[in-house]
Design a protein that fits this description.
Blueprint (H helix, E strand, L loop, with lengths): L10 E3 L5 E3 L16 E2 L8 E10 L4 H4 L3 E5 L1 E6 L7 E2 L14 E8 L2 E8 L5 E3 L2 E2 L4 E2 L9 E3 L2 E7 L21
Length: about 180
């Protein structure tokens, strides 16, 4: 490939559910179907709302988890070990297995310049907020950094980037934001 030669990789899904690269094969190489393919839609970039940061862990997992950060983006962020299901994939925690369903969800929305960040546990998994087990969704908008979130063996804090939390004035939808010059 020469410099400046840009090739677009087009991944397609045949009617039998096989995925293949259209640049290398005009039909599905697995079943040879040449019916109209369904293009896989590209994910739109989601705006950053904050970070989930591991600040502590059980003694035997400290080195694998402590200090890791996970981007929290607009809309739903499922937290767990399954990379096919979760936007936030926690690796190195023996209590969060790749085959398990997600453990919790952080949902971020902005409506009329009001940002809301919700933490919701998944039934059957223990998620702690502060030192209490979480049984229903909790609004993190008035979240203090000192409040911790425990998922698996990791202890996390939510660090906001958008909204009024921690005195932040930034909002992705504020038309008055201009670069400093």
């Amino acid at each position: 490939m020469n410099k400046g030669d840009a090739r677009v990789t087009e991944v397609y899904k045949c009617p039998d559910g096989h995925f293949y690269n259209k640049n290398f094969s005009v039909s599905c190489p697995y079943c040879d179907f040449q019916l109209p393919e369904i293009p896989i839609p590209k994910k739109e970039a989601r705006l950053l709302y904050g970070w989930l940061v591991c600040v502590a862990a059980e003694p035997d997992q400290v080195m694998q988890l402590k200090g890791r950060d996970y981007r929290i983006k607009q809309e739903e962020n499922r937290i767990g070990g399954n990379p096919n299901e979760c936007e936030v994939v926690i690796k190195g925690d023996p209590h969060i297995k790749p085959a398990d369903p997600h453990r919790a969800t952080i949902t971020c929305t902005t409506d009329k310049n009001v940002t809301q960040v919700w933490l919701q546990p998944v039934m059957g998994f223990n998620v702690f907020y502060g030192h209490k087990i979480l049984t229903e969704p909790v609004l993190l908008d008035n979240h203090r950094v000192s409040e911790t979130i425990k998922i698996g063996n990791g202890i996390y804090i939510y660090m906001p980037f958008v909204g009024a939390q921690a005195g932040l004035k930034f909002n992705w939808y504020d038309e008055g934001v201009t670069p400093h010059g």
